[in-house]
Write a structure and sequence with these properties.
heterodimer; A: alpha/beta; B: 292 residues; alpha/beta; 9 helices
Chain lengths: 129, 292
């Protein structure tokens, strides 16, 4: 159990992360190692970060999210962000210069659909001439 | 036995006496002028003009009786100003213009001065004081009326701008999960904020997966506008939807390249119909022509 973060395995090698009130994004080191430990223990390939309860994404929160995304990438886990609130999306679009390094989905269902597409095996290449 | 020397009347007392002695004549003149200005244009009925004339005279007398010095914070002066504010709002709502009303107020001032000429007991110094007093009262009233007109005009302009903004950015769900946003005119920061707020809320409400932003109606584009567009597309992406930008006219495309604006990360299509095809492709929707 990681204080301030609620983690739920939801199948399809995915884990749902729901941040709680106690999460302190100014101290990513306190979360990243135990979080990765949990994901590896669950053999997760995908992490869905649910931002439903996050009203505003500022520099600090965005830095925390990108740090977590980097950690996931190193470990072969794809992080998908879901449920960014309209006001948070507006504020974040003004904050960042380019697109975020992680894929975004409208909600958790859309994120799961995106994951299924990502997890599907690539079609066998047609080598006929 | 000596007779006591007559006490010198104050400015206010002179005006009160003037009004008391000539109230019938003054009110008749005011009503006549009121009919000439407001009656002919059907702005006020005869009864309304008469009521306003009497109320005006009552309020002036109350103000003059309230003290020798004009106190701008007094209840009597506030009542007189409020009277003119309400009066001007009413006739403005009925289509009057500022000129007519200011002319009327100047006429009211002149009525007092015209009647003063007939009073031989008023010396030059008193006339001067009366003139200053009336000027002070009526200038404040004209300023109030001017502010009322300005506020009303500003309200009208804001309402029109709001209506224009609402009608110039209609967000429509043209297919399940596909929104279109045609942008007409230019995009400034205020409008971008409003459009984005509406668009992002609609994406959430309609669970939209693709947004086609059509800029065929955008006449000119500069770095600020393109920056706003890119921001909008980024926000759409953050919500988990895909944005397709359509309708970039050749001259706009030329401006964008001249401004070194990189739309490399943005999906663009030439026309709105091409944008829709792209949206359908992303949703794996196939539109076929029927046999019939």
């Amino acid at each position: 159990m990681i204080p301030g973060i609620h983690l739920t395995p939801i199948g399809d090698d995915s884990v749902l992360l729901e941040p709680g009130e106690g999460l302190d994004p100014t101290d990513p080191d306190a979360y990243l190692v135990p979080l990765l430990g949990y994901l590896q223990k669950q053999r997760a390939r995908f992490l869905i970060y649910d931002l439903k309860t996050v009203a505003l994404i500022d520099h600090v929160y965005y830095a925390w999210m990108t740090a977590m995304n980097s950690l996931c990438l190193i470990s072969g886990i794809t992080m998908v962000v879901a449920n960014i609130r309209p006001h948070a999306a507006y504020a974040l679009s003004q904050l960042i210069a380019g697109n975020p390094p992680f894929p975004c989905a409208l909600n958790v269902d859309s994120a799961r659909q995106a994951i299924q597409r990502l997890a599907a095996p690539a079609p066998y290449p047609d080598t006929r001439s | 036995m000596t007779t006591p020397a007559p006490t010198r009347r104050t400015t206010n007392q002179i005006l009160i006496d003037l009004l008391m002695l000539n109230v019938g004549k003054i009110s008749a003149v005011i009503e006549q002028q009121g009919h000439s200005i407001f009656g002919q244009a059907n702005l006020l009925s005869k009864e309304e003009i008469n009521d306003y004339s009497l109320e005006f005279l009552e309020l002036v007398v109350m103000l003059l009786q309230s003290g020798n010095q004009l106190d701008r914070r007094s209840a009597e002066f506030s009542a007189l100003r409020k009277f003119f504010t309400t009066f001007s709002q009413q006739i403005q709502a009925r289509g009057s213009n500022l000129d007519e009303f200011v002319r009327y107020i100047q006429f009211l001032q002149r009525v007092f001065l015209d009647n003063l000429e007939a009073d031989a007991t008023v010396d030059f110094a008193q006339s001067r004081e009366i003139l200053l007093l009336l000027g002070s009262i009526f200038n404040d009233i004209i300023l109030d009326v001017f502010h009322v007109y300005l506020e009303e005009k500003e309200r009208t302009i804001q309402a029109q701008q709001e209506e224009l903004r609402q009608t110039s950015t209609p967000i429509t769900e043209i297919w399940d999960g596909v929104l279109t946003l045609p942008i007409i005119g230019t995009l400034d920061s205020t409008r971008t904020m409003m459009v984005m707020e509406n668009l992002l809320s609609r994406i959430e409400a309609e669970r939209a997966r693709v947004v086609v932003i059509d800029v065929t109606g955008v006449m000119a584009i500069d770095s600020q506008v393109s920056h706003h567009l890119i921001q909008m597309i980024r926000a759409v992406g953050l919500m988990g939807a895909d944005a397709v930008l359509t309708g970039i006219r050749p001259e706009i495309a030329r401006s964008l390249t001249s401004l070194n604006i990189d739309l490399g990360e943005v999906t663009t299509r030439a026309t709105l119909s091409e944008g829709l095809k792209e949206a359908f492709r992303r949703l794996r929707v196939e539109v076929r022509q029927g046999n019939g």
